Amino acid sequence: MATTTSSPHSLFLQNRHSHPLNKNNLASFTNLKKINFFNTKRAISVTCSAASAPTQDRTAAQIQSGQEDRVFNFAAGPANLPEKVLLKAQSELYNWRGSGMSVMEMSHRGKEFKSIIEKAESDLRALLNIPQEYSVLFLQGGATTQFAAVPLNLCTPNDPVDYIVTGSWGDKAFKEAQKFCNPQVIWSGKAEKYTKIPNFDALEQNPDAKYLHICANETIHGVEFKEYPSAKNSTGILVADMSSNFCSKPVDVTRFGVIYAGAQKNVGPSGVTIVIVRKDLLGNAQDKTPVMLDYKIHDENNSLYNTPPCYCIYMCGLVFEYLLELGGLNEVEKMNRKKAELLYNVIDGSNGFYKCPVEKSVRSFMNVPFTLEKSDLEAEFVKEAAKEKMVQLKGHRSVGGMRASIYNAMPLAGVEKLVAFMKDFQAKHA
User: Looking at 123, 169, 187, 417, which residue is catalytic?
Assistant: First the structure.
């Protein structure tokens, strides 16, 4: 279907019987290939595809033949989402499952959204095998807000707490906690440029500490805990920021008092933060804790104390459903391991042309930082990769070099294409 009109606005001003989004042609609209609503100088052009939406992620052949116009996005976050999820969201955008409205228009108090958030929680519990002794909260403010919420909910201003700092985000969490308790860094990898994880047996934990805090995966430096330390404090509480490896592999939730994660790496768009907290830790917030940071308030209100990020929660729910369809987190971990090993093998086999500074035993499966032996080629690497539809490969401004974030939704074809490009680039410049 192709439509032209002399007025740039008339597409949305037709009567209800000829509206382009009425029930008779909604199916066609969801397959829109190109739409230009806002060009006020030319007639509007709408082109629709007769083909049904694809049901599988792209293959390398599709990309190379130009059949797809999407890029391989290696951004650290917000990051790419599973294509099946995006297409599902596209099909439900205008009228969610016969409700007559979009999820973006729903009341968060209505039965429709109640069913969405309840299913999202149920599927997340299934993915991570979360016991009923834990509360699952869908909050706002990003993991950075949790840097304050954790100490405000778990301790008093004078309580000691222990922090292991393996990168920039662990350091930021420690510095924020200084405002609300008495934290101590019991190990830092800063002197070695955050390339290692400590020997747990050598850690000198404070037996009086209220909790031990770690960042499970450092997005910037590419350092990931493969095992987790045991909290040797009197409470036995381990707290983890899992923002950049959340739902990338199975985790024994019972090892932790609190797990928190921004969704925008592995499980959804930016705007929602997931907190998993043991219920016996609720109700002890400091008096000065803002109501929006009090875990007990959100638990009592089922994450609906105020208007939550409804559409973001809906998207997370679609991702959880997708991950379950893949076979759960055991299968997801296998896929992530395969992608990471493929990329690290090319780096390690490049005879020094590419280098990853992180100790091999703790290299992240999610964020792969690397440098070029000839640093003056880095800008060209990024530019040439972008021409091949591989974007966001420039490293974080604080460390430089390159970084490929290969979260759950990055298909194997994307890593295969990057690896082939890296080999070709080395052949041209070695």
Answer: 169
Please identify every stretch of the chain with a pLDDT value under 50, giving residue numbers as ranges: 1-56, 60, 63-67
Comparing CA positions, the residue from 170, 172, 171, 108 lying closest to residue 140 is: 108
**Tokens in use for 391?**
């974007």
- ∠235-157-173 over CA atoms, to 5°? 75
Q: What's the CA dihedral at 298, 304, 307, 308 to 10 degrees?
A: 70
Residue (of 10, 1, 19, 2) closest to 40 by Cα position = 10
Q: Look up 294 and say whether it is catalytic.
A: no
Tell me whether residue 187 is one of the annotated catalytic residues. no
Instruction: For residue 117, count CB atoms less than 10 angstroms from its CB and return exposed for 0-12, middle for 13-18, buried for 19 or more.
Output: buried
pLDDT at position 58: 55
- Tokens 């105020």: give the residue: 306
- The H or E element containing residue 115 is helix 111-128
Distance CA 137, CA 150 (A): 13
208 near 160, Cβ under 8 Å? yes
Q: How many Cβ atoms from other residues are within 10 Å of residue 205's Cβ?
A: 18
What SS3 state is found at 394?
strand
For the record, the structure tokens of 35 come out as: 């739409």
Q: For position 7, what pLDDT does the model report?
A: 39
Which of 123, 171, 241, 294 is catalytic? The answer is 241
Phi, psi of 263 (to 5 degrees): -80, -15
CB 356 within 8 A of CB 370: yes
Burial of 394-416, coded b for 16+ CB within 10 Å and e otherwise, reads: bbbeebebbbbbbbbbbbebbbb
What SS3 class is residue 136? strand
3-state secondary structure of 261: strand
Which residues are bridge partners to 391 per DSSP?
73
Q: Using CB atoms within 10 A of its CB, is residue 286 exposed (0-12), middle (13-18) or buried (19+)?
A: middle
Tokens of 180: 């609300």
Q: Does residue 102 contact residue 93 with C-beta atoms inside 8 Å?
A: yes
The per-residue pLDDT for 147 is 98
A 10 A CB-CB count for 58 gives: 16
β-pair type (182-188, 160-165): parallel
Give burial (CB, 10 Å; 0-12/13-18/19+) of 355. middle
Q: What pTM value is reported for the model?
A: 0.86
Catalytic residue among 84, 210, 265, 394: 265
> Is position 123 annotated as part of the catalytic site?
no
